Amino acid sequence: MLTYALRRILGMVPTLLLISVVCFVVIRLQPGSFIDQYLEDPRVTRETVELVTRQLGLDQPAYVQYLTWIKGIVTEGDFGYSFVNGRPVSSLIWERLGWTVFLAVLTLLVSWAIAIPLGIYTALNRYGPGATILNFFGYVSLATPDFLVALLLIALVLNFGGTNVGGLFSPQFIDAPWSLAKFLDLLNHLWIPMIAIGLEGVAGLMRQMRASMLDVINQDYVRTARAKGLAANRVLWRHAVRNAVNPLISLAGLSLPSLISGTIIASIVLNLPTIGPFLYDSLLNKDQYVAMTLLLFSALLLLVGNLLADLALAWADPRIRFE
Amino acid sequence: MTARPAPSPAAPLLAALTVSLALCAPAHAQANQSRANVPPSLFQTVGKKGGTLTLSIVSSPQSFNYFAVLDNNTYTVMNNVLDRLITLDPLTNRLYPALAESWTFSPDGRSATLKLRRGVKWSDGQNFNADDVIFTLVDVASNTGLRANQSAVFKIGKDPLTFRKVDAYTVRVTAPKPYGAMLQALTFVPILPQHKLAKYQPLRDPDGFMKAWATNAPLSEIVGTGPFMLGSYTVDQKVSLVRNPNSWRRDPRGTQLPYMDRLEYLIIKSPDAQIAAFRAGQLDSAPITGAQFPDLKRQELAGAKFRVIRGIGLNNPPVHWAFNQDSRDANLKKAFSDLRFREAMQLAVNRERIIDTVYNGLASLPGHGVAPISEWYTNTRSYLRSYNLGQAGVRLDGLGYRDTNRDGIRNFPGGGPNVEFNILHAADNTIMPGIAVILQSDLGRLGIKVNLQGITGSTVLPTALAGNFESVLSTFGDQPDPQLRKDIWQPGGALHYWRRSLQPAQEGGTPNLAAMTPAERRIHDIFAQAEALGNQAQRKRLYTEWQWLFARNLPVILIAKPDSVAAFHDRLGNFYVRDNRVISSNYSVFEK
């Protein structure tokens, strides 16, 4: 298994290189460049524009820019400078990573914790009124974009006189040291993003779980288990769910890149301090090294997520063996 | 750097010059600080100290280094920390002393001597003096190696202004020739602390200097003379500023400003979230647009605890409609270069409807190159003409733009192709698409086919500057002095994009004078003459003539100038409208 994992990791290198080339080409294909904003400012002379172009290396041919960037990563772990912030890209990403990971992991856990039981429930009670209502809500929340849910929730809270809209904290707690009051304030703010971002995930996962549960539940081995007189709960959890959950593990691996790009619009609407809006800004400003690093990072997460999912699958399902 | 003299010996001397010493509490404080030293128009009433002012910015500041980035969020934050030599009175838009306490002009109008305010301290306790000013103006602001340098405003033609230290509290600015807007240029430049930044050697190592005061720099390094100083910064969430204990500003009673203890900027990216935070009481004031005005006004009238006000601003950029007079299409080039055609176009502009529906009534008729509330303005309103499609049609008929092939669209004279052109505009803007659609429908009724070409707002000007358009809706902000907009309105200027063929072959060269129309030539000369005059009355006469020429010759058609609108919470004092101007400042507002 170790050699398998190693081989997979080594295999990522050429894939990532290829992806980085594609990212670079796509970013270069956008019309305009970072320099454009300087053109419309009356204080900036043409001389300055040329100077900035030179300083940023934008006067060199595209392939030279790309090779310089890759060389920096490989030899020094240097992901380049942000044109906009005048700081190394890695430190900019690093300072935003904390809340991003926190929110992504939390939404993932919450949506799994809600969706799996609901999926099982709707599969077991296919024609019951409860399942019908849940399915209906599932369709609605699948069809509603997350930012719209966010806007609706904000409007609702405001109209009921609430004030905890937007952000993760009330203004006075943002730079306060951690305390019980700050934690409670966080919980007070957290439920809106959890619902807005998590809801779509819950609906999707619930439908997946329901479908694979329905597949499994009519299998021979489930009938056998029942026939040999096992308790209903034991049949459900040990035999049915354990098999039905396999496709969801693969799915979880694919959801890792959503850490970066998954919730850009909802994060902007809800004013969350995550990486998504940072990526969006860097694309708008044509801050090419920030955008490329984030896209590359997103690709890396996808590959790593896939690997982790495969390993987890092997652990969960003894039938799966590598080689 | 030489050692600075301690301020104490100077104090008694100064005190003797001023009568009102008695009000001055601390012994070392200067006499001139006992009365208000900020524009009196900022005070509706005298306020009281205490409280937190919470405002918003749309994105994290890119840096705390004013000259390293072009970023309004950086400027918004740092304008509370750094001071200029001279500011503008918000009521009159005239120059008002800040770090420079007074100034005198030499008789030939070529140089100005500025007396600096004595006793001002940086927020870390160091004295402010002429070395800081010279460092900022010479090493930083004029340093073309820095990305956001301001050398452009220090140039008259190709020659730069020079700055010289006379003594520790006197600085002299000299122009190569008489220059009327000399002091205006100084209202742009925030003064930096030499003792903190000289070590980065901006002249020798511009790149290194631009990395100073980055957003991860220790905040104690970032010092200023302004009312506030940086307290803490939480990435993507909040920038907190606290009262600068050494602030030199005083209110009319001699109380040290700012009134507020803290100033916080929440970082809120979406305009909707900003309004939501404002309604939830998290923000004391929110930037609003004309589109949001009616809704908030209704809530105010229904008893919400905030107030929504409107006024007329100076800078608010008026929208103009420009035609590419160097169009690659020969027919269009001929039409657009013809003043009579542009006059017919102006008759088809329904300003009343645009102001009413697009701006929700929150805009007014524009001036020609000068804001109507500016002291330079002359009333050219009669030349805006009123909307009259019938008359526009008669004019076009007279010029030969008739529908000769009977397809409902006019043709170019002599049986040419259909008259059809694009209007380039910012598609991601709340205003421009609305104006473009109204123009399209009115011109459609007139028999001219208009295609709307909406692109990302930030690419409109570069596209126009490249000459890659047929007609365009764009904006340029107005400035207090017409000299500062010379690049736009002087034929041959770098931003005079609708007549690119007039631009000099090389930057800084002579524009193509031979290709100018008589009116363009006259405007060109007016700007050249006014720039070299120190006499304000003569300058005013010239700029008045220019406004008439502008209004009559329509280089571009001005459409409307948006009003200033603001929303703020009831608890704020000294946030008000006077003479149609919205007046407030972060250091003079207080908690009622």
Automatic annotation (TrEMBL), chain A:
<feature type="transmembrane region" description="Helical">
    <location>
        <begin position="136"/>
        <end position="158"/>
    </location>
</feature>
<keyword id="KW-1133">Transmembrane helix</keyword>
<feature type="transmembrane region" description="Helical">
    <location>
        <begin position="9"/>
        <end position="29"/>
    </location>
</feature>
<keyword id="KW-1003">Cell membrane</keyword>
<keyword id="KW-0813">Transport</keyword>
<feature type="transmembrane region" description="Helical">
    <location>
        <begin position="97"/>
        <end position="124"/>
    </location>
</feature>
<dbReference type="Pfam" id="PF19300">
    <property type="entry name" value="BPD_transp_1_N"/>
</dbReference>
<feature type="transmembrane region" description="Helical">
    <location>
        <begin position="186"/>
        <end position="206"/>
    </location>
</feature>
<comment type="similarity">
    <text>Belongs to the binding-protein-dependent transport system permease family.</text>
</comment>
<feature type="transmembrane region" description="Helical">
    <location>
        <begin position="289"/>
        <end position="316"/>
    </location>
</feature>
<dbReference type="InterPro" id="IPR000515">
    <property type="entry name" value="MetI-like"/>
</dbReference>
<dbReference type="Pfam" id="PF00528">
    <property type="entry name" value="BPD_transp_1"/>
</dbReference>
<dbReference type="InterPro" id="IPR045621">
    <property type="entry name" value="BPD_transp_1_N"/>
</dbReference>
<feature type="transmembrane region" description="Helical">
    <location>
        <begin position="248"/>
        <end position="269"/>
    </location>
</feature>
<keyword id="KW-0812">Transmembrane</keyword>
<dbReference type="InterPro" id="IPR035906">
    <property type="entry name" value="MetI-like_sf"/>
</dbReference>
<keyword id="KW-0472">Membrane</keyword>
<feature type="domain" description="ABC transmembrane type-1">
    <location>
        <begin position="97"/>
        <end position="313"/>
    </location>
</feature>
<protein>
    <submittedName>
        <fullName>ABC transporter permease</fullName>
    </submittedName>
</protein>
From TrEMBL, chain B:
<comment type="similarity">
    <text>Belongs to the bacterial solute-binding protein 5 family.</text>
</comment>
<keyword id="KW-0813">Transport</keyword>
<dbReference type="InterPro" id="IPR039424">
    <property type="entry name" value="SBP_5"/>
</dbReference>
<feature type="signal peptide">
    <location>
        <begin position="1"/>
        <end position="29"/>
    </location>
</feature>
<dbReference type="InterPro" id="IPR000914">
    <property type="entry name" value="SBP_5_dom"/>
</dbReference>
<dbReference type="InterPro" id="IPR023765">
    <property type="entry name" value="SBP_5_CS"/>
</dbReference>
<protein>
    <submittedName>
        <fullName>ABC transporter substrate-binding protein</fullName>
    </submittedName>
</protein>
<dbReference type="InterPro" id="IPR030678">
    <property type="entry name" value="Peptide/Ni-bd"/>
</dbReference>
<dbReference type="Pfam" id="PF00496">
    <property type="entry name" value="SBP_bac_5"/>
</dbReference>
<feature type="domain" description="Solute-binding protein family 5">
    <location>
        <begin position="95"/>
        <end position="482"/>
    </location>
</feature>
<keyword id="KW-0732">Signal</keyword>
